Amino acid sequence: MSALSWQPLGGSGDTVLAMDFAVGRKGAGFEAVAAGLSTSFAVFLSTFQPGSLESLSTGPTPAAERFTRDIRTSCAGLPPVRAVIGYCAGSAFACHAADTLADGGHRPPVVLLDPATATPATIWERYVEAMNGLKELLPAERIDQELARTPQDPAAALPAYAATLAGTYRALVTEACDLLGAADLAVQLGTHVADALHYQAVAGAIGGNRRGAVVFTSKGFVPEPPYAPADVAFDVAYADLLRDDAVVRAVVDAVSAERGPRSPIGPVA
Fold it and tell me: Domains of the chain, with CATH numbers?
């Protein structure tokens, strides 16, 4: 079963794929971008089955190999792909998807928005954010003590690091929810945070060809290698990048400018 599926965001015609992990994010999602594109294209947003990113990250089959197959399986019924868009860590997924869908030497163009390189530091940041969220349920001192005991390891292997931090979070969220008699909530929150951490780990494992992508960034955001510098840096906050009118127009123009052959979905290998 594919870990990846697609949520339709509207429109018709050739497909534009948007790669993102937006569950629980406070910043803007792809709704405004999709509205701009849907006059000419059918827009689909990536979704991952709960718990699937952990198995994708730590399973016996390499993540890149699994994700390649998931792309082909999940896209099999979609119209031809015109372009792929990636946001933040989803940029790695977008580049890998474009490589997978290349047909006859034609690779769908890629548009990247604030492309972020996944590292142990980015996994740690997501972990700290999730742990701080538990301060509404447990004493702040308890959370701070656990954070102080948790090792920060800049050289860690991403899947193992994500698994370790997810395990620590699960233990604390279970403790917090037991006090509320909400065991089901503990499972839900633990799975969500594990998926968020392993999303970063998979992004660091898959890669894909970053060259040739159109790159748009928010104010002060500087892409790290292997991503190219921004083609356009917008004077807009990171959290508002996907809803800004000028950014939406730029994405629509970049996708619409593609006039080459489309990339049909090939058979599952």
Answer: 4-117+208-256 (3.40.50.1820), 120-202 (no CATH)
Cα 103 to Cα 108: distance, rounded to the nearest angstrom: 9
Among candidate residues 85, 88, 87, the one with its CA nearest the CA of residue 98? 85
DSSP-assigned letter for residue 5: E
The token duo for 130 is: 């999730």
Grade residue 104 by pLDDT with cuts at 50, 70 and 90: low
- Counting every residue, how long is the chain? 269
The encoded tokens of residue 171 equal 């233990």
| pLDDT digit string, tens, across residues 8-35 | 999 999 999 999 997 656 667 899 999 9
* pTM of the entire predicted model: 0.91
Give the DSSP letter of residue 263.
B
CA nearest to 161, candidates 117, 186, 127? 127
DSSP letter assigned to residue 83? E
Q: Note the Cα 76 to chain centre separation in Å.
A: 21
Distance between CA 181 and CA 106 in Å, rounded? 55
